[in-house]
Amino acid sequence: MTVLNNNFLWGGAIAANQAEGAYNIDGKGLSLVDMLPAGDARKLPLFNPAKGLKQTYDYYPSHESIDFYHHYEEDIRLFAEMGFKALRLSISWPRIFPKGIEQEPNEAGLAFYDKVFETLERYNIEPVVTINHFDTPYYLAEHYNGWYDRRTIDCYVNYATVLFKRYSRYVNYWITHNEINMILHIPYIGGGLIIQDSDHREQVMYQAAHHQLVASSLATKIAKEVDPTNQIGCMLAAGEVYPHTCHPNDMMAALSKNREQYIFIDVQARGAYPTYSQRMFKELGITIDKQLGDDEILKQYPVDFISFSYYSSRLESGDPEVNKQKGDGNAFASLRNPYLEASNWGWQIDPVGLRVTMNQIYDRYQKPLFIVENGLGEIDHVTSDGKIHDVYRIQYLSDHIAQMIEAVKDGVPLIGYTSWGCIDLVSAGSGEMKKRYGFIYVDRDNEGNGTLQRLRKDSFYWYQKVINTNGEDLTY
Description:
- By secondary structure, the chain is an alpha/beta fold.
- It contains 15 helices and 16 strands.
- The radius of gyration is 21 Å and the shape is globular.
């Protein structure tokens, strides 16, 4: 008999900016990702405030993506065929408020999500909605410097209020910000921040994060007022940081890195900045500008559950010379762990690390957990008969789900598991399509060519079996 309860939310996850496309249809404004090209060009400056110039490119992957906007019925039908109990998706903020500053929402944008939620309801799939998944309106980045400007809080609260009032009859689970700690690693996408060389980088990022934290608590307050049964979660880009060796300096370095990722979740779950933040901020030379009432709103409205993504653990040394050997993987730099294999994109594969991470998060917060992203991005090949034999993905997911179940046996309460990119979509980091996660293959390449035809991979049928047995049969 499985240890997972009968209402465990099996499913998958997508994001509006990586799947919907239709970037300028039905009144939608530009999002942050709409300004990003494909490949290495994404690392180039997008906007020069001194000259007022925006760089332009030949191809923007998000403009069409996989066109979920016009294929949502077909895609949801395929999710239902797999047996999904839940679909984590995000709402595009600029589809509802094109610039972010409007007082009244774009009705055409709201109507699209009405149709999505009605379709999910028809197939008995529970929506898990991220309010802002790397999708701040570009106008706010260009004119406010995104979340660094406190006025963005009011824009977000207005947006979130519209969502709660419109969709609470469909949605029980809400996530205020996607991977809030990623603002420290990809500040443009995470916070709409355009940081200049002359700026105090850490001051800008942590101040912007403070505004996101206040906005999250205000959204929690409003959600409960609209419907007291609304469940509000925060989200962490998680992955335990291991010490490079058992040297005490390495242990301390790993502790510090773990605190760096947990600091914002400490606030959202516990209602206050942790004591260690005082020394951290002092050593970084930053001062968080708070307004009267900020601490009170953070204290009064913590989240109900902790959601997180998990792809890899990391490795940290207390020796600066050793840390020079770090490689980049999923926006997080890490030393190479000799006990782990890595994917083609350098992500170190550590299923046991998921169990470690789950236990650490629950020990820290004592709130229910929700795994809302986990998956393997790899290159898939379609055979001459239209098959995709992705045993490597099945093995990855099987090993991770097995360790997830071990964590539940350890006593960790878990709401559900939604694997990332349940259908192939555009990579957030590189804009690639060849880096595929899905159970469903989408005929689209890195240059935007292809028919958009959907094909079931071998992993589609494997995950169908996993859900049908509530995690009892992970064989492949």
